């Protein structure tokens, strides 16, 4: 079955370029020209898309707001932001809003398809996970359920994106072990992904959701110049 993509881009020529090349690559593409239509179509289709490509700079509802609304409706859809700017703040803001990746314009067909393929693989791996490993992993006040893809702290569910869940699962399977950024990047985003900043931004998001004091974390600790470590806090 073809993977389903929704493309939201207000510039017709760019939108046509994306639709043409993703269609040629075997994707089933739905395209819209504004943020309002993206939210409407996503809602009408009950979020049945594998990936959403969202332009950041659009009149009306911009890409950041669309990303936020789509993420509220689905924690499973992969979201890639498209931006004509290369500033770090746009990239960080996209990830903090719940996006999985970003592409800076102009981009090649090869980069476009590679990024979409990578996000689709992560979505499929998460949805189709049938591991022989124990379905429940405990760590201090946390319970991670691999079947329902949920994490609870003291019995209270934590609202996570698919990427955040995968990072936490990776930590839970490597408790009290120092993990370098490259290992985390390759485990979650694949061998062909570059740019470790995406790891740091997602760790920041997770800390805001799970730590009692995000600025003084006790579960996800930083190993300066190396990476991070999950401290189980078990007695």
Topology-level CATH name of the largest domain: Rossmann fold
How does the helix and strand content classify structurally?
A: alpha/beta
- pLDDT averaged over residues: 88
Please describe the biggest sheet, giving its number of strands, its sense, and whether it closes into a barrel.
5 strands, parallel
Strand content: 15-25%
Distance between the termini: 48 Å
Provide the low-confidence segments as ranges.
none
Spatial arrangement of strands, main beta sheet: 2-1-3-4-5
Gist of the model:
By secondary structure, this protein is α/β, with parallel strands linked by helices.
3D structure, described in words:
There is one protein chain. This protein is of the alpha/beta class. It has two domains: 4-127, 3-Layer(aba) Sandwich (Rossmann fold); 136-230, Arc Repressor Mutant, subunit A (Orthogonal Bundle). It has helices spanning 12-24, 35-44, 63-73, 88-96, 109-127, 162-172, 181-189, 197-210; strands at residues 4-8, 28-32, 51-55, 78-83, 101-104, 136-139, 142-145, 150-153, 156-157, 178-180, 220-223, 227-230. It has a five-stranded parallel β-sheet with strand order 2-1-3-4-5, with helices on both faces. A four-stranded antiparallel β-sheet has the order 6-7-8-9, with helices on one face. Strands 10-12-11 form a three-stranded antiparallel β-sheet. A hairpin with a 2-residue loop joins β6 (136-139) and β7. The model has no long low-confidence stretch (mean pLDDT 88).
């Amino acid at each position: 079955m073809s993977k389903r993509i929704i493309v939201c881009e207000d510039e017709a020529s760019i939108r046509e370029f994306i639709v043409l090349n993703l269609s040629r690559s075997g994707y089933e593409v739905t395209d819209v020209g504004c943020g309002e239509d993206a939210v409407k179509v996503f809602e009408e289709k009950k979020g049945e898309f594998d990936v959403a490509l969202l332009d950041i700079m659009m009149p009306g509802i911009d890409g950041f707001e669309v990303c936020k609304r789509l993420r509220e409706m689905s924690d499973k859809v992969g979201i890639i932001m498209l931006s004509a700017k290369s500033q770090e703040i746009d990239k960080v803001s996209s990830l903090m809003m719940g996006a999985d990746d970003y592409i800076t314009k102009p981009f090649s067909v090869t980069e476009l398809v590679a990024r979409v393929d990578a996000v689709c693989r992560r979505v499929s791996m998460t949805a189709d996970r049938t591991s022989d490993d124990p379905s429940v992993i405990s760590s201090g006040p946390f319970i991670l359920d691999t079947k329902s893809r949920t994490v609870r702290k003291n019995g209270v569910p934590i609202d996570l994106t698919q990427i955040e869940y995968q990072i936490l699962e990776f930590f839970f399977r490597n408790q009290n072990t120092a993990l370098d950024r490259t290992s985390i990047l390759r485990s979650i985003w694949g061998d062909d992904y570059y740019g470790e900043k995406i790891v740091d931004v997602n760790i920041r998001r997770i800390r805001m959701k799970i730590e009692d004091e995000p600025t003084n974390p006790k579960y996800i600790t930083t190993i300066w110049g190396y990476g991070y470590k999950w401290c189980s806090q078990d007695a």
